[in-house]
Amino acid sequence: MTIKPDLSTPIPADLGAVHFVGIGGSGMSGIARLVLGAGHRVTGSDVRDSDNIAALRDLGATVAIGHAAENLPADVDTVVVTGALWQDNPEYQLALERGIPVLHRSQALASVIAGQRLVSVAGAHGKTTSTGMIITGLLALGEDPSFVNGGVIEELGVSSASGSGELFVVEADESDGSFLLYDTSVALITNVDPDHLDHYGSLEAFEQAFVDFADRAREFVVISSDDAGAQRVAGRLSHERVITFGEATDATVRVHSIETEGPVAFAVSYEGAEHRARLRVPGHHNAINAAGAFAVLVGLGFDPAASLEGIARFAGTGRRFELHGTVEGVSVFDDYAHHPTEVAAALSAARTVVGDGRIIAVHQPHLYSRTRLFAKEFAEVLEQYADETVVLDVYGAREDPEPGVTGALVSERFEQPEHVAFIADWQEAADHTARIARPGDFVITLGCGDVYRIVPQILGSLERERRA
Predict the structure, then answer these.
(1) Which of 143, 279, 343, 454 is the most buried (most CB within 10 A)?
(2) What's the pTM value of the predicted model, to 2 decimals?
(3) Known binding-site positions for ATP
(4) C-alpha span between 58 and 228 (Å, rounded)
(5) What DSSP designation does 276 have?
(6) How far is CA 408 from the centre of its chain?
(7) Mind listing the pLDDT tens digit for each residue in 69-125?
């Protein structure tokens, strides 16, 4: 079983020397970068090397590959972990034996951002993009915010940075309730689509967490006017200042006239004026994300036209419709989408730019519980938005396997089984994908596990197939 960090654990006044177990992930590496920037000595470990780890080493961190008790320095003061860590991790167990404070990554982040004017972005999906849009907009407006995002911001090449300004922008994780740790000034809720019910136990508890998150915001709340869950949460808020955004006619920030062919274009109506923009990223959902980011910036007092112009400079984040290569006209992308709503958004965005080509989805289900609960919904959106689908086996992450829960739960629910294949072996899946692909097609890997690692295999299979 994975660990269940105690979020009530007191956070030390001084973190001292910090050891990160699982330092290579986008979230953990971003926090480690900030801790380094604050002058702390940082060590860490992860199961494999990565660009994130190389960047941390360049900044002075000492990182071991593989988890072992000897990785934990004798003089470490604080250990930082994620909820994806297993109970028997030797570094975690040694920290407990030695009585070293063990903090969830959100607690470490809360320590770093204490006392700053915090913009927290939460929601079942859209967080990383919305956070990136706010950061990009602030930079274009001449601000210098600190930030931690869940993905690398394309034009900046980093997922976190320490700025000189008063604003600090974070992607706040609702999956385990840790977003309630932050002293938030401005709360943005992109949506409240049911997810993480394995942690919360019920939809009521999930939505109540968002109510608590929003009502604790010291300045104002920005929340979707369109999402059903967000509407229910908004109806329960007691906050004095709530800004809504979306396509609803009564939204404070109303987005309309959305054009999705190629990079998305749209108009925003706010306080009697209309502003237009064309983004550098595709997809109807990104027009909505931009409206949320715009609502945050104008709520902070920035000029509306300049705010939207700044947001339009956003060029995407890593693992969000990210192109990895093209072989003989077949383009291979990777996307973090791991919930049915996210999969629908990613594939519909791809549809606007694929032209006459087809979309081949390579879907890695994430979590046994989510696969069991949403197998039918995944099948429906994959069948609706992709022309062909390859389903891999489940990436369990923090969960133990469940009997009978495999990727086949998704593929078996397709109404047209000739357009889907469940293939657990990755090389066989890559070879199958290469055989069915033809020039002009988009291959898109989908999932928040390690599915991105199959991309080189797909590119290799495409090259071999074309030489045959």
Answers:
(1) 343
(2) 0.85
(3) 123-129
(4) 45
(5) E
(6) 25
(7) 999 999 999 999 987 788 889 999 999 999 999 999 889 999 989 889 999 999 988
Q: What residue type is 259 in one-letter code?
A: E
Residue 27 to residues 144, 158, 278: CA-CA distances in angstroms?
20, 11, 29
Tell me how many degrees the CA angle 72-76-80 measures, rounded to the nearest 5.
Answer: 75
The dihedrals phi and psi of 39, each to the nearest 5 degrees, come to 95, 10
What would the two tokens of residue 342 be?
């996210």
Rounded to whole angstroms, the Cα distance separating 270 from 410 reads: 42
Strand order in the sheet with 78-81: 62-65, 42-46, 18-21, 78-81, 102-104
Half-sphere exposure at residue 227, Cβ-oriented, CA atoms within 13 angstroms: 25
DSSP 361-388: EEE--B-HHHHHHHHHHHHHHHHHH-SE
Give the pLDDT confidence of 344-386 residue by residue, as tens digits. Answer: 999 999 999 999 999 999 999 999 999 999 999 999 999 999 9
* DSSP for residue 70: G
Structure tokens at 187: 């709360």
Residue 23's φ and ψ, nearest 5 degrees, are -75, -15
Mean pLDDT computed over 244-273: 96
Burial 117-148 (b: 16+ CB within 10 A, else e): bbbbbbbbbbbbbbbbbbbbbbbbbebebbbb
Q: Which amino acid is at 212?
A: D
Contact (Cβ atoms closer than 8 angstroms) between residue 189 and residue 214: yes
Q: Which two tokens stand for residue 460?
A: 């290799």
Residue stretches of the annotated binding site: 123-129
Contact 136, 128 (CB under 8 A): no
- Can you read off the two tokens belonging to residue 345? 């958004």
Query: How is residue 270 written in tokens?
Result: 């706010």
Provide the terminal-to-terminal Cα distance of the chain, rounded to the nearest Å: 46
105 in Cβ contact with 22 (< 8 Å): no
Q: What is the DSSP letter of 449?
A: S
d(CA 288, CA 298) in angstroms, rounded, equals: 15
CB atoms within 10 A of CB 451: 23
Residues carrying an active site annotation: 127-128, 171
3-state SS, residue 268: strand
Average pLDDT of the segment spanning 247-267: 96
Identity of the residue numbered 64: A
Give me the pLDDT at residue 20, please.
98
| Rounded distance between C-alpha atoms, residue 197 and residue 370, angstroms | 9
